[in-house]
Amino acid sequence: MKTFKSILEFQKYFSTEEKCRKYLEQQRWGTTPACPFCGSVNVHRFPNGRIFKCREKECRSKFSVTVGTIYENTKLPLTKWFLATYILSVHSKGISSLQLATFLGVTQKTAWHLTHRIREMLTENAPELLSGVVEVDETYVGGKVSNKHVSKRKDFSKLDNKTMVFGAVERQGKVIAKIIPNTTSDSLVNAVKETVEEGSIMVSDENVGYQQLKKSYRHAKVNHSAKQYVNGAAHTNTIEGFWSLLKRQIDGIHHSVSPKHLQRYCNEATFRYNNKKEAQDSRFTLALRNCEGSLTYNQLINKI
Ligand SMILES: [Zn+2]
Questions:
Q1: Is the pLDDT of residue 239 over 90?
Q2: CA of 61 to the centre of ligand 1 (A)
Q3: Both 205 and 292 in a single domain?
Q4: What CATH number corresponds to the domain at position 182?
Q5: Which of 77, 115, 135, 234 is 20 to 30 A from 240 via CA?
Q6: How would you write the chain as a 3-class SS string?
Q7: How far, in Å, is the centroid of ligand 1 from the Cα of 25?
Q8: How far is the CA of 37 from the centre of ligand 1 (A)?
Q9: Does 137 fall in a domain?
Q10: Pick the residue with more confidence: 1 or 159?
Q11: How many Å lie between the centroid of ligand 1 and the Cα of residue 208?
Q12: CA 72–ligand 1 middle distance (angstroms)
């Protein structure tokens, strides 16, 4: 996997469209280009090197490496896309669309669309269930009210524009963060079952919602069951740490994030957290390998 020691080295390596395209081909197809419409590897490369044609009788489609990826139909050069992807996947806190716009010399609207499409790339589509000792918790993110922990809040009706996010994190392992509609027992039970393997040790605070899960999980509650567990026990410091990371990114960099886009910001923070052991520079390639799929501007703003 190609690695880059600095942003300068990165820009030098991907200085032309040609270089970007070649790297994308390599990451997407290896040595065997495949038709994005029918999957066949029986394809012909035109002499210009950029365009392919599928040789299958019933297909015959023409395509380039960007077809079927988030880079499809873009007016922006790949050099800028790559740089933006590098910054979002490598930079420890992410970047605001305003900063990125200045950096790339594009409008803020373009940069905003760009960052959301890149966040799609940073999304793990079917993450494995977490296991071992797993801390679970929920918190409000975004909006204007201060970031007090849910259990310390008294008046939920004032939670203007705040969105509830559920999180589960393996000790020394991965985190999953997802938006949930509310904190009813049903929501919490579903969220845990979708993210944590049955039989795991689940550590939570005293929220009663989690108590219904005691048949499927070994449940450790902070404060009360601390002595029952080895490994130093029942605490939720790991997930609390992730929350402060997420909130620093959202409140500190983006200032306000609408609920309909919040899941993507969670995915971005999760990607960086889960790949923190990877060398910074290989995170770019990891992200790039996930480039299939697309998200149009109209889809983003819900016009279609
Ligand atoms: Zn085909």
A1: yes
A2: 6
A3: no
A4: 3.30.420.10
A5: 115
A6: CCCCCCHHHHHHHCCCHHHHHHHHHHHHHCCCCCCCCCCCCCEEECCCCCCEEECCCCCCCEECCCCCECCCCCCCCHHHHHHHHHHHHHCCCCCCHHHHHHHHCCCHHHHHHHHHHHHHHCCCCCCCCECCEEEEEEEEECCCCCCCCHHHCCCHHHCCCCEEEEEEEECCCCEEEEECCCCCHHHHHHHHHHHECCCCEEEECCCHHHHHHCCCCEEEECCCCHHHCCCCCCCCHHHHHHHHHHHHHHHHHHCCCCHHHHHHHHHHHHHHHHCCCCCHHHHHHHHHCCCECCCCHHHHCCCC
A7: 16
A8: 5
A9: yes
A10: 1
A11: 54
A12: 17
